[in-house]
Hints:
alpha+beta
Amino acid sequence: MSDLTPTPDRPGLHITAPTRxxxxxxxxxxxxxxxxxxxxxxPVRALIDGYTAHHGPAHHGGAR
Length: 64
């Protein structure tokens, strides 16, 4: 499997939760250049909500 981590050349959102005993992790890169990472269930949820609301498909300057 290829690396699914988003980059400026391949923007997007990537989330992992390897096991129930390990924290969830997320990384995001928007076509506008914004990027973020998070570790832990609550921070990952906040990153997803922020990315969805302000970047990615919802971001007017980026790809839809």
